[in-house]
Each structure stands twice: as C-alpha cells, then as structure tokens.
Specification:
The complex is a heterodimer of chains A (about 80) and B (about 140). By secondary structure, chain A is α+β, with helices and mostly antiparallel strands. Chain A has five helices and two strands, in the order αβααβαα. A two-stranded parallel sheet of chain A has the order 1-2. Chain A is globular. By secondary structure, chain B is of the alpha/beta class. In chain B, about 25% of the residues lie in helices and about 25% in strands. Chain B contains four helices and seven strands. In chain B, strand 2 and strand 3 form a beta hairpin. In chain B, helix 2 (about 65-75) packs parallel to helix 3. The mean pLDDT of chain B is about 95. The chains are: A alpha+beta (about 80), B alpha/beta (about 140).
C-alpha cells in the first residue's frame, strides 16, 4: 500500500477486498473477484494489486495505516440503503 | 522459458526473488537445487537431507487467501517466504500453514526456520525470550 500512504505518484492501485465466506469457498470466491476485476485494470490503465482478507482477518487490523483506507463499496451499506 | 522463470501471477518483483535467492544461497544448511515458475526454489537441507520447495511472495500481511492460493498453485510447497522483516502474515494464514506443516517466514525468521527439523513451526524468540512471530494483528 506504498505510494498512497507515502503520498507519492502511484504506479498501481491497491485494492483490499474483505469477504465473508466459509474457508473451503475462499479460493473460488477469490478467483471470481479477481476475474471480475480484470476489466478494471483496462479502465484505470495501471496494475491493480488485490489483497483479499476474510472479515475475521480484517477486524484484526492487518495493514499499516488502516485508517487511511478509502471505502469504495460495502454490501452492508448497500443493504442498509435499500431498507 | 521452459522453467517458467521471468513472470509470475503473484506480483512478486525480480528484486524480491533475488533477495530470497541470496538468503538461500548463503544459508549454511541449504543447497539451492534450482528455481522454477519464477518464484519457487527447490532446496536441499544439508543436515536433515530433505528437499523442500520454498515459494516467494511479497505481502505486508500475507492473508489466508494468499497462502491458500500458493498451496493450490504449488501443492508441494513446504515454506512460504513473505518478504522483508517488516512483512508478516495474519493469524489465520499462520494457523493454516501450521496445520498443513508449511513454514511461513519473513526475512528475519527464515534462517532459523530452515535450521529447524520441524521447519513448519519454528518459533523465533526476541531478546527477552518471548515469541516473536510476525503476525499482523
């Protein structure tokens, strides 16, 4: 998560995806996510570095400067808006 | 290239791969047998006489998904190297590796791990004798 945290010009985009699923489905879910995001690389024009955490891992604050992460999408938020 | 070196699907830089090669080739208990698929080193441990596959990744916090993907891609993996001393792994990734008898180490841990008979659960101690695993939490 280097260039953003160091406020340098970026050469890639770091994307953190948090998933909630059973461990035996984690790889297939992750493969679907990576496949779905392939097109995004063409749009942004730079490599996209995808890190996938389980919700349990993410709750343990595994990254440096967690507070600077920018939320792009939350299925919880979408569900709440629909209510 | 027939050995698959030159590119990898894990986003590992050539510099990181060469760093691991340097660590392995200068380790007193290790003979490097070769490198393939860009990020996999096959080594023989001199004292134990076993042959291990060491896979190089690069992650500040190696996740469960990352180590599961490594195992799916390289089922023979014995040791996962996550990078420099500032890098580490989540508790879930560590527990998955321990359960599957896979060592997961950063640059500060791998030398000791490769000396240990049970290379999958080498415990580095800090100066005060406390466990010093690089679990990010």
């Amino acid at each position: 998560m280097g260039s953003y945290f160091h406020q340098k010009k970026y050469r890639d985009v770091d994307l953190v995806v948090v998933v909630e699923c059973e461990p035996d489905r984690l790889i297939s879910v992750a493969n679907s996510i990576r496949e779905s995001l392939l097109e995004l690389r063409e749009v942004v024009g730079v490599p996209i570095d995808i890190t996938i955490f389980t919700s349990k891992e993410f709750r343990a604050n595994p990254l440096r400067d967690m507070h600077t992460l920018v939320l792009l999408y939350s299925s919880d938020a979408v569900a709440a808006e629909g209510k | 290239m027939s050995n698959g070196n030159g590119a990898n699907d894990f986003g590992v830089s050539f510099g990181r791969i060469m760093f691991l090669q340097q660590v392995l080739s200068t380790h007193s208990n290790v003979t490097v047998l070769g490198r393939h698929d860009d990020i996999v080193f096959d080594i023989r441990r001199n004292r134990q006489g076993d042959v291990l596959s060491v896979v190089c990744v690069e992650a500040y916090s190696a996740s469960l998904e990352l180590v599961m993907r490594v195992v799916q891609t390289f089922p023979e993996v014995a040791v996962i190297f996550v990078g420099g001393k500032w890098n580490g792994y989540t508790r879930e990734a560590y527990e998955f590796c321990e359960e599957h008898k896979i060592g997961i180490y950063n640059a500060g841990e791998i030398a000791g791990g490769l000396h240990s008979d049970s290379f999958w659960n080498y415990e580095k101690l800090d100066d005060e004798g406390n466990l010093a695993r690089s679990i990010k939490a």
